Fold each of these.
Amino acid sequence: MSPRRPAWPGHAGAIPLVSPLQPSVVYRSADPDALDAQYASGAGYTYAREGHPNADVLAGLIDGMEGADGGFVTGSGMAAISAMFLGLLRAGDHVVGADQLYGRTLRMMNAELPRLGIDTTLADVTDAAAIRAAIRPETKLVVVEVVSNPTIRIADMEGIVAATREAGVLLAVDNTFTTPALYRPLAEGADIVIHSVTKLLSGHSDTTLGYVAARDPALTRAMWEANETWGLTPSPFDCWLAERGMMSFELRLARAEANAEALAEALTGMPGVRRVLWPGRADHPDHNRAMAVLGGRGGNMLSFEVEGGREAANALVRGAEGIAFAPTLGDVSTTLSHPASSSHRAVPAEARARVGISEGFFRVSVGIEPPEDLIAAFRRGVEAASAAAARGGAG
Ligand SMILES: *Cc1c(COP(=O)(O)O)cnc(C)c1O
């Protein structure tokens, strides 16, 4: 699933194996006729906000993995989502979204789109009937993630594809958590695929990038126009770094996934751990659906809950020495996040409790470390949390 190195034009007969980094913002044209022809055809480069070689090469690699044609790279995952909304919607339209989308996407649904006169409804994506019920005559678009963050629930993708087709509305899938190795939205019947390339595809937490592609070239064109006009363009250097990272994508994911399975198994047996959520395990609430939707794979994301309140959570993070407490995912190293103090801070406690996000709830983006080091670090963390919970009384 990792892409092959792209071919670049040669220089004086020698073809570089590694893509050159092309930072030029502007490109010269031969004469006004040539420039005119270039604008008319859309081919070639004139000004970097409107496209540059490093972005195009990266987009081509992701297109290949997603089975897409003509997708483009944006300055962040949120820029990709913005390009979609700004390119495809107008005041009076309605959008349905999953009720557990990425935090900033939820903010887009709850605050930004309504501010622009676009109404939104959030619904439970584990239940296609709830999505169907949320669709109205003026609904233009349904936006979902396959694996919910941070609760690791699996969307009923087959039911949602059917519901959106029947209603004649567009389905956009944010494929960041799943990656094309676990799910390929366009092949499964979705209309639009989105990535935060920042995460698993790039893989090293040193670039901020996004990607979006639609099955219908007219939709891709509309999103691309918004991207250029609203200035959501990526930096050549970020694209160049991401291309390098993507060469090892499949190896990184396979190792991280094997580590996630081993860590889930180890956590399940640790005293003080209430529950572990990894889709590849038979005890996951959506295991059967996960196996069908994710092609038998479990991915690198898991969540778990320990007994105790904030004190136990603090103790866990301090005790799991060597595991970075950082609100991201998809890095080569394992990162730990605590939704109650970060992504879900603003969510009222009882709404959080309804979806199972307690003070003891953690999300783990599993990396590629030696598994025994990883398990040992989490064991120290869980033991520290249990000791804190015992001191403070169960929270
Ligand atoms: C991180 C993330 C985003 C936003 O991407 P940025 O590159 O941070 O802008 C969107 N969706 C999901 C699922 C993400 O994990």
Amino acid sequence: MDLVLAILLVIVSLLTRGGMCGDRLLVNMTLVRRAAAIGAYCLDGSLPAYHIHRGFGAGARNWLLQFEGGGWCNDIASCAERAQIRRGSTRHMNKLETFSGILSNNATHNPDFYNWNRVKLRYCDGGSFVGDAKFNNGTLLLYFRGQRIWQAIIEDLMPKGLRFAKKALLSGCSAGGLASYLHCNNFNNYLPNATAVKCLGDAGFFLDSPDINLYHTQRTFFQRLVALQGIQKNLDDNCTNSLSDPKQCIFPQYLLRYITPPLFILNSAYDVYQFHHILVPPSADLHGIWNRCKLNPKACHPDQIHLLHAFRVEMLTALRSFLFNSSRGGVFINSCFAHCQSESQDTWFAPDSPQMHNETIAESVGDWYFGRNVSKKVDCPYPCDTTCHNLIGGV
Ligand SMILES: *[C@@H]1O[C@H](CO)[C@@H](O)[C@H](O)[C@H]1NC(C)=O
Ligand SMILES: *[C@@H]1O[C@H](CO)[C@@H](O)[C@H](O)[C@H]1NC(C)=O
Ligand SMILES: *[C@@H]1O[C@H](CO)[C@@H](O)[C@H](O)[C@H]1NC(C)=O
Ligand SMILES: *[C@@H]1O[C@H](CO)[C@@H](O)[C@H](O)[C@H]1NC(C)=O
Ligand SMILES: *[C@@H]1O[C@H](CO)[C@@H](O)[C@H](O)[C@H]1NC(C)=O
Ligand SMILES: *[C@@H]1O[C@H](CO)[C@@H](O)[C@H](O)[C@H]1NC(C)=O
Ligand SMILES: *[C@@H]1O[C@H](CO)[C@@H](O)[C@H](O)[C@H]1NC(C)=O
Ligand SMILES: *[C@@H]1O[C@H](CO)[C@@H](O)[C@H](O)[C@H]1NC(C)=O
């Protein structure tokens, strides 16, 4: 991630946290001891972990599982680095995690899921919970065991009540949003037929789109990720059988039609990660022509805005068939310079949260999950939306 964006995200998260200091819910980490038996390790060999807060009342038998996000590592050097920080090792993680937004236990802040069993799956494999490989050259040992971590966590949760779930929702943001697309069918297969299983991808709809110089930067990045982490065999068979390059099935746009449970796609059409890494990666802007625009959309040249709009159109085109033909699907594509809108309280459900057609994200997701209303919303192009919480251009 860009340093600048990383700093901005830290500032935003500090502001967000500061805002809810009074009644914030901290949840303890649970290490998955049985993971060792199936070789399900974090990059550095530490045990994987999750945080669970129990449901109660009418939600006592409903389960929300959320994949933590945090980018990827797709070569030995970046994975070796990652193995030494919290992104690749539970040894370096905070043991208490704040549950807010869709994970909040307060009906005022999270009207539909507050009383469910809520679980946050910690991300320590660098491959969206879907790799299965190992690197060992005698001096350096790295585990790429995301798929086994997913399996170990599910199997640990089963006897804790997941096997009796009435309703279930698999969610996640960013690399975790991608994980929720990739594991949606598998999650459904783990659970009884009678369980209502649905999936939510937040800021995980990474487009297979060329950058401003028409290089396929993201495609190349994902291809290296798939190869390094042994991901291909864990991608959906129906999808990999249908494409000439099976590795492409890591992109949600190709996988979409093969996902069986009802799916909700929550994304900004101007997602800041995609803007900074897919449309205008550093490699495509060596002279920094986009620097000011990347920090503040108001500083963008009309030509740059034009390219951003074209990216939005490309996203909507990739979603066309889902938008029109998926009767059980939900969509919330707003036009904010955002990234991850279900996890922090201010974007999920608060008086000034982002809205479309007078509905917040929490209300739209709830309408979809509980079938209260059709829930497919697509925003007008930037800058028409005045409800955004933008990560760039003033928070
Ligand atoms: C978290 O778990 C540790 C170890 O079990 C325990 O010592 C600590 O008190 C717990 N913290 C909270 C806030 O529950
Ligand atoms: C829920 O949030 C509201 C508003 O922030 C607060 O007044 C109330 O005490 C909270 N309830 C619980 C159970 O934490
Ligand atoms: C193992 O790989 C690491 C990272 O590529 C490298 O620094 C190290 O020299 C290698 N060790 C051997 C014995 O090849
Ligand atoms: C679940 O559904 C599948 C396919 O519809 C069916 O083959 C299977 O027998 C069902 N399992 C149970 C336990 O009902
Ligand atoms: C995927 O393939 C299996 C057979 O391998 C088939 O039963 C299933 O219906 C397919 N699913 C989709 C969504 O195409
Ligand atoms: C929706 O499905 C119908 C029937 O399969 C198909 O003809 C049509 O092209 C689809 N529409 C979109 C936008 O994909
Ligand atoms: C918007 O929603 C609020 C609360 O849900 C409601 O009070 C208000 O009347 C709605 N406004 C419009 C224009 O629909
Ligand atoms: C259902 O959604 C439509 C379109 O967004 C909206 O006009 C309508 O008011 C909603 N109905 C209810 C009961 O919320």
